[in-house]
Amino acid sequence: MQLQQQLTDLYPKLNSPHYFSVYPPVCQAVFGVAAWLFPHSERGFIVLLRAVLLGAECITALLLMSLLRAFGQPKHRALWYVLNPLVIVELTGNLHFEALLICGLLAAWWALTRGRWVWSAGALGLAVATKLLPLLVLPFLIRRLGWGAFLGYAAVLSLVVGAFLRRSCPLICSATSAAASTCIFIPSSSTPASTTCSERQATGW
C-alpha cells in the first residue's frame, strides 16, 4: 500500500504522464531488467540503474585514457571528465542515461582509431539505441570512411539498433505484465484513483 500511495502521488508530477516512455530500446531494456529483478522494490530498481551507469562511467574513463594516449595527450586529462561535478551529479546521481551514450560514442571512436569500423559501428549503434543524439556524427563519418565503407558502417549500425528494438519489446512487455500482476496502481488522467484490480484487468490495464 505504501508503494501504491507513492506511485499515486508521483505520477501526476511526471513531465510526460500520458506516454508509456520516450526512451530508446537500450534504456527500455535496462528498465525492463530492473523491473523484472525488483518488481516490488523501488530501492533495488534504482540501485541496479545506478550500478549500470557506474559501470559505463568506469569504461568511459578507460576509453578516455586510451584515446588520450593515442593522440599524444597526458592520460590524467581524463580526470577533467571523471571528476567533473556536473557529470557526477547528473549522470550517476540523477540517473541520466547519457552515461551509456557517452560510453558507446567513445567506444565507437576508440575502435575507429584502430581501423575496426565494424566494431565502431556496433558501438555507435548501442549509443544510438540509448539516445538518438549520436546520429549527428554520421555525416562526419562519410568524409572519414568514404561512401562505400560508410554504407557498410550504416548497415551494421542499423542492424544493432534493430536487434535491440526487436529484443527489448518482449522484455518490456514481460516486465510490464509482471508489474501489472502485483496490482500496483498508476493512475491516468481518465482513470479514477479508486480503480480496483478487477476493473483494471477487465479494461486491459
What order do the helices and strands come in, and which of them pair?
Layout: H1 2-10, H2 25-37, H3 42-70, H4 79-82, H5 85-93, H6 98-113, H7 117-128, H8 138-181, H9 197-203
Helix pairs in contact: 2-3, 2-8, 3-6, 6-7, 7-8
Protein name: DUF2029 domain-containing protein
Transmembrane segments: 20-38, 44-68, 80-111, 117-138, 145-165
GO molecular function: hexosyltransferase activity
Your description of this structure?
The chain has 205 residues and is an all-alpha fold. It has one domain (24-172). It has 9 helices and no strands. The protein has helices at 2-10, 25-37, 42-70, 79-82, 85-93, 98-113, 117-128, 138-181, 197-203. The two termini are 18 Å apart. The model is unreliable at 171-205 (pLDDT under 50).
Brief rundown of the structure:
The chain is mostly helical and 205 residues long. Helix content is 70%, strand content 0%. The chain has one domain (24-172).
Distance between the termini: 18 Å
* The number of domains: 1
- Which segments are poorly predicted (pLDDT under 50) over 5 or more consecutive residues? 171-205
Number of helices: 9
* H/E series: HHHHHHHHH
Rg, rounded, reads 20 Å
Largest sheet: none
The portion of residues assigned to helices is 55-70%
How much β-strand is present in the residues?
Answer: under 5%
Count the beta strands: 0
Give the overall silhouette.
Answer: globular
Structural class comes to: mainly alpha
Mean pLDDT: 79
